[in-house]
From TrEMBL:
Belongs to the peptidase M42 family. This is M20/M25/M40 family metallo-hydrolase. Coiled coil: none annotated. PROSITE patterns: ARGE_DAPE_CPG2_1. SUPFAM superfamilies: Bacterial exopeptidase dimerisation domain, Zn-dependent exopeptidases. It comes from Enterococcus hulanensis. Residues 177-269 form the Peptidase M20 dimerisation domain. It comes from the Bacteria. Its cofactor is Zn(2+). Keywords: Hydrolase, Metal-binding, Metalloprotease, Protease, Zinc.
């Protein structure tokens, strides 16, 4: 079994839900303890988010440019007990938990890359390795990382994407989410229903006037949760809808959310109900041309390893979105983790090895 697969299997066995990443951080610190020159810094993000662990930062000096690799230590649930299985070259859980290739694959790749930098003598760029916390909860770890760790960084490669090895996420949507709340008026449903304003009826009319789901090729929206009412014999006084919208076009996103708010406000007014909303823009999306230097280096590395490069769109965000919002040139690369956030999650051992080879080449090609 190759070293990278061994590291991955060890990491996968360690439960690390968001805000409880400490055991994985200890594994990383222990793993790197064999290098006396390496200092593993831990920032104060843990305290800020009420977690048990901060982001870990490892810097290995070299030439220019300064590149940073990022992967997140936390996983989604269920992850109380994870028993990774390697069968026919594919690693899965035992079916009762997630595997956590999202993003232990990225962590394993970074540790193997540090081994490469520390044991093989070759001219290399300055490399920072950032092991973040709480990515699965609104990218909090990356958002709270102090700017001083990013100041001199030229390129960030986030190892947290899906798709065949060679895939770079070049397009991610802008998003907006929050609550749409209709406040009607309660009244006894049998005695005096005409004195009430049924929040459900009002919301239903507003929703009927809107398109929900796919709006066009680059825009979607959804109502995922509806909560309201108390008992059957009372006219429903309040209804809260959890709404989200995404678009690759920031203009279309703005138009859509304005249309939703205006529609609800208009219908509420017609019924004498009140409307409250908490819609907020999320971390901005991004769109990269295939010709930018951060991608040229990756493309050259892929080519050297006979891996097919492809730029892909992804419906969700990653820490790369946070770093781009913070003004640093970042992109998310795939480790070919599959069926993530499910008990059917899997990753091929050969893909971990292939991606490691590509990243080793990347260190040679980036300039
Ligand atoms: Zn992830």
């Amino acid at each position: 079994m190759s070293e990278i697969v061994k590291i991955f299997l060890e990491l996968a066995k360690i439960p690390s839900p968001s805000k409880k990443e400490r055991p994985v951080a200890e594994y990383i610190k222990n793993y790197l303890a064999k290098y006396p020159t390496i200092e593993v810094l831990e920032d104060r993000t843990g305290q800020k988010i009420d977690g048990n662990c901060g982001n870990l930062i490892v810097k290995i000096p070299g030439g220019s440019p300064h590149i940073l690799f990022d992967a997140h230590m936390d996983t989604v649930a269920p992850c109380d007990a994870i028993n990774p299985q390697l069968k026919n070259g594919v690693i899965t859980s035992d079916g009762t938990s997630i595997l956590g290739a999202d993003d232990k694959s990225g962590l394993a790749l970074m540790l193997a890359l540090i081994d490469h930098l520390m044991t093989d003598d070759f001219p290399h760029p300055t490399c920072t390795f950032l092991f973040t916390v709480c990515e699965e909860q609104s990218l909090m770890g990356a958002k709270l990382l102090e700017q001083k760790y990013l100041d001199s960084v030229d390129y960030i490669y986030v190892l947290d994407g899906e798709g065949p090895i060679g895939t770079a996420v070049v397009k991610t949507p802008h998003g907006c989410k929050g609550t749409l709340k209709v406040i009607g008026k309660e009244a006894h449903a049998g005695v005096c229903p005409e004195e009430g304003i049924n929040a459900f009826v009002v919301a239903a009319e507003a929703v009927s006037a809107l398109s929900i789901g796919r709006i066009d090729g680059e825009t979607t929206c959804n109502i995922g949760v509806a909560q309201g009412g108390t008992v059957t014999n009372v006219v429903m006084g309040e209804l809260s809808l959890q709404f989200e919208a995404r678009s690759f076009s920031p203009q279309k996103l703005e138009e859509l959310t304005n249309h939703v708010k205006e529609t609800f406000a208009r219908v509420c007014q017609q019924y004498g109900a009140q409307f409250e909303e908490t819609l907020q823009l999320g971390t901005p999306g991004y769109q990269l041309a295939d010709t930018v230097p951060i991608l040229t280096a990756f493309k050259k590395a892929c080519e050297h390893e006979a891996v097919v490069y492809q730029g892909a769109a992804c419906g969700g965000g990653s820490n790369a979105n946070v770093y781009r919002m913070r003004g640093i040139n970042a992109v998310n690369l795939s480790t070919n983790m599959q069926n993530i956030h499910s008990v059917n999650e899997q990753i091929a051992a050969a893909d971990l090895e292939k991606m490691l080879a590509v990243l080793k080449q990347l260190l040679q090609k980036v300039n």
